[in-house]
Amino acid sequence: MIKTRPPLLEVEGLKTRFYLDEGTVHAVNGVTFTVRAGETLGVVGESGCGKSVMARSILRIVRPPGHITAGKILYHRTIGNQRESVDLTKLDPRGTEMRAIRGLEISMVFQEPMSSMSPVHSIGQQIVEAIHVHKDVTKEAAWQEAVEMLANVGMPEPQRTIQRYPHELSGGMCQRAMIAMALCSYPDLLIADEPTTALDVTTEAQILQLMRDLQHRFGMAILFITHNLGVIAQMTERVIVMYLGRVVEAARVEDIFHRPHHPYTQALLRSVPRLGQKVHGQRLTSIRGNVPNAYVIPQGCPFHPRCQEMRPGRCDRVEPPWLQASVDQWVRCVLYQ
Ligand SMILES: Nc1ncnc2c1ncn2[C@@H]1O[C@H](COP(=O)(O)OP(=O)(O)OP(=O)(O)O)[C@@H](O)[C@H]1O
Ligand SMILES: [Mg+2]
Q1: What whole-number distance in Å separates Cα of residue 285 and Cα of residue 188?
Q2: 13 CA to middle of ligand 2, Å?
Q3: Structural domains in the chain, sorted by start
Q4: How far apart are CA 43 and CA 40, in angstroms?
Q5: What are the φ/ψ torsions at residue 223 (nearest 5 degrees)?
Q6: Ligand nearest 109 Cα, by number?
Q7: How far is 11 from 253, CA to CA, in rounded Å?
Q8: Is residue 308 within 8 Å of residue 289, measured between CB atoms?
Q9: CA–centroid distance, residue 50 to ligand 2 (Å)
Q10: Residues 207-265: pLDDT tens digits?
Q11: What confidence tens digit (pLDDT) does each residue in 96-153 have?
Q12: 53 lines ligand 1 (CB under 6 A)
């Protein structure tokens, strides 16, 4: 089923670096993956593994001193009944083509909602503007649609809240406004970066349901970045696991949970409480050590200094190739060679 869908976004060997006085941050260090039309691809990995920088690179909103230094971001769009492929890394980030894709065809829900909204426009003005980008409707009709979208994302008193400015909203309300803004253009690809972290579980469930509805109705694909493995289990079909700017495993969601291959994926799963498991009085295991800073990526497998399966002389020397472990499961680890 999933296989028959055409690829919508193919990221190949993407590298994004920040050139700072202290050194070069290798935030995204050769990431490859595909999002197919209409599917939800989950992205997991500890803090600092490059998930947000990867997402921002796709939208071409990484600001200097950050730069894409290698790789391709092939976006396959359908215009009329023509398929056309464009490498987003080749576009001028501020040019008309990239601006048209951004927000209209690919939109993003940011991890920090406040920073991505204009402080000097009411949320109504901002959502109406987003609606007007793709629809030629009267201001009144767009305003009405904005109110409805705000109601859809569970905004309390949408008629009234729509007139407010971002700084007048709570974190959760701001997040909902941003989700409404991202969804009102009915994008082909939604990049959701921790979209529901500031929300209570009821609102979270409502928003996840709304995303699934839009996906079924309009065939929207979602790149879903989250630390919440419960949400991954609920929302995604396939998952990529990132570590230090690399994808170390890619598999169907059930294989990630039931047959994780990479020692890093296994450690990630051990570090969260099982759904329904009592955690009271029980210490959660965490992965030993910390994510090293991304200035100097360890030689060999980037995870080897923290890996319980580390083979000296091998894992600390040569980076393992991308190996196919089974039909739908790929892993970057010598254990599967
Ligand atoms: N503007 C920036 N300037 C310099 N370094 C940056 C910048 N933005 C991100 N980085 C660095 O790039 C690396 C990847 O950061 P990123 O925000 O993508 O991580 P993440 O996986 O999204 O983490 P989290 O789960 O906490 O959101 C980190 O080492 C981070 O410090
Ligand atoms: Mg992030």
Answers
A1: 39
A2: 20
A3: 2-336 (3.40.50.300)
A4: 10
A5: -105, 110
A6: 2
A7: 20
A8: no
A9: 7
A10: 899 899 889 988 999 999 998 999 999 999 999 999 999 999 999 999 999 999 999 99
A11: 999 989 978 999 999 888 888 999 999 999 999 989 887 899 999 999 999 999 998 8
A12: yes
Instruction: Give ∠ CA 71-73-77 in degrees, rounded to 5.
Output: 160
DSSP string of 34-92, one letter each residue: EEETT-EEEEE--TTSSHHHHHHHHHT-PPTTEEEEEEEEEEEEEETTEEEEEEGGGS-
Residue whose entry in the numeric block shows the structure tokens 């464009």: 86
Please choose from 49, 241, 296 the residue to mutate so as to test ligand 1's pocket, defined by most ligand atoms within 8 A of CB. Answer: 49
Q: What is the pLDDT of residues 4-53, one digit of tens each?
A: 789 999 999 999 999 999 999 999 999 999 999 999 999 999 999 999 99
Token pair for 313: 């002389």
What distance in Å separates the CA atoms of residue 277 and residue 279, rounded to the nearest whole number? Answer: 6
Backbone angles phi and psi of 10, in degrees to 5: -120, 115
Q: What is the largest CA-CA distance in the chain?
A: 68
Ligand 1 contact via 111 beta carbon (within 6 Å): yes
Prediction pTM value: 0.93
User: How much distance in Å is there from the Cα of 24 to the middle of ligand 1?
Assistant: 12
Would you say the CB of residue 231 lies under 6 angstroms from ligand 1? no
